[in-house]
Amino acid sequence: SPPLLPQPLLPPLPSLPRSHASSLSFLFSLSLFFSLVNCFSFLFCCTQQDAVWEPPGEFEAPEGVYKQQLRPSYRRVNLSRAECLDYRPIPSRLSFASVKRDHSDRASKESVHVLYNVRRSVSWHEDHDDRARDTLSYGVVGHSPTSHDLNQLTRGPQQLDALIGFTTGEVVVRQLYSKETLWFNRGSDLTKSPVTAVRWVPGSETQFVAAHEDGRMYTYEKDLSNFVAIEKPNCHDSAALHVHLQKAEESNPVMEWHFGSKARAIYDMAFSPDCVHLAVVGRDGLLHVINYKERKEVFVRPSYFGALCCVTWSPDGCYILTGGQDDLVTIWSLEEQDIAARASGHNSWVSAVAFDPYVSDGTTYRFGSVGQDARLCFWEFSVSALRLPRLSISSPKCARAPQRQASRKKKNKGKEAKGAPVVLTPRGKDEVPVIEPLVAVRLHGEPMTDVAFREEHVFTCCQGGELKIWIRPEKLQTTAV
Prior knowledge:
With about 475 residues, the chain is mostly beta strands. It is built from five helices and 31 strands.
C-alpha cells in the first residue's frame, strides 16, 4: 500500500468557480493583446516617419531655388561612452568674418572665415574648406564651449581674434593665427555660472561682454591681466538695471550688469549697428533695450508667453527681432518702443533669428528663423504694412485697447518716476499684425540652432553639430508683403 502523505496544517484554498477563472484569463489575454498592438503601432509609426522624411537637397523661395552645397559637409562628431553619459545639449552656433587676402590690392577677393562649436570643440574653417584650419578641443568634463564671436575690427590676413565662452564660466580670447590664448575668470573665481553669450563691443578693439546663466553680464578689457572682484552694495530693487564699475585701477572686470536682485538667466544679447544700444533677452521673458554708452535702460517689453531665446537687430537699427518659447518671432520698433508685428509659422521654440541684408532694402525687410521643429522659415515685412491700423474698427476690443494702455501707463507713472522700468502686459493676438512665412521647410533631422545669411550662401546648423551650406539663386528678386 502507498505510504500515507502528511496532512496539510492549513486548509486548502477555496477554488474559484470555472466561470470566474475563464473571465480572468480572458481579461489578461485581452490586455496583453492591446499592449502588443500599441507597441507594434508605435514602432510602425516611428519607422514610417523616418522612412518618409528625407533631408531635402534644395528648397524653393520666391526669388528662386536654394540648393545645398554637397562639398564640404561638416558632420557631427562621434562621442565616446563617457562623453555620452556627461553630454549636455549645447546648441551649435556660427560666427563669421570676411578678410581681404591682400589689403594693398583693392580688387583682392575676401576670404570668409567660419567659426562654429560642436559638443566640446570649436572648429575654424576658411572659404568653405572641408578641412578645419584649427580645432580647439577641450576634453575636461563639463568644459564645453557655449558661445563665440569674431572681432570685426582687428580682423586681417595675419590676425583674427576669437572670443569663446564656456560652461564653467570662463572666457577665452584666442588669436587664431598665432594661437595665443588669454583666459578670463580663470578657475571660475568670479562666477561659476555657465556663459550663455559673448560679444565684442562694437567700436572697441579690446572690450567684450560676457553674459551668464545667473543673470549677470561682465565687461572685460582684453589688455588687462589683473583681476579684482567688484565691490557692490545690496540691491533691493528687483526690476531696475544696476551697473557697478570697477574701483581698482587697470583691473578686470571693468563693469558688472544685472537686472535687480532677482535676476534670471540671460540667453542672448546683441549690439545695435550704431554701437549705441544693447538688446538682452532671457528666462524672464523680457526684452531689455539698454543704452550701452549711458548705461541706462531705454525700455522693457514682455513676450507673449514664456522665455525669449534669441535676439538680433535689423541692418539699419530700426527694428529688433526676438524668438522664444511662444513659438513666435516678434518684431519690435525702436522708434515706437513697442511691438510692431508677430510672425507665426513655427511649431516649437524659436532658436535663432537673423536678418538677410542682401535681400532687404530701405522699405522691405527679409529675415529668417530656425527652431526646435527643425524648420527654416523666411519672412518679409514692409514698413508701410506695419504702419497700418493694428485693430479692426469693427472689433469690440478696438475701443477698449487705448483705454487699457492708458490705464496701464497711469498705474506705472509712479514707478517710472522712481527709475524702475515700465513693463506693460503683452498684447493679444488680435491687437498686432501677424505675418505668415514665405518659406517653411524642414532641413535637418534634429532641432536647428542657428542660421546665418551671407552674400552667396545661407548657413544652417542643428543640435547634433551638422552644418549645411545652401547656395543662393543667381538672381534675387525681393517680394514685398
